[in-house]
Amino acid sequence: MFNSINVSASGLTAERLRMDVISKNIANANTTRTVNGTPYRRQVVTFETKSEAQSFQQHLSNQMGKFSGVEVTGIKEDQSPLKNVYEPGHPDANEQGYVLKPNVDIVTEMANMISATRAYEANVTSIDAAKNMSQRALEIGR
Question: Does the pTM of the predicted model rise above 0.85?
Answer without folding.
Answer: no
